[in-house]
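Put briefly, the fold is written as integer tokens. The lines below illustrate.
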Amino acid sequence: MAQGLTRITYTRHLRTRLEMRKFPAELPKKIFEDADRRYRDRETDHLIAIKNWSGSGGGSGRS
């Protein structure tokens, strides 16, 4: 992905979830940059990034 061409915007919902689950604030950006798959939402024209991940931490109790 070319640097500087994509603006990553964190919604209020995302910022709240990151705080609740104690995930690092830069995690969504890393996921977007290293996504396994990307889609474009037809309604909003937003890019959606998917990254397969299993790990510990984050407080959700899921891995």
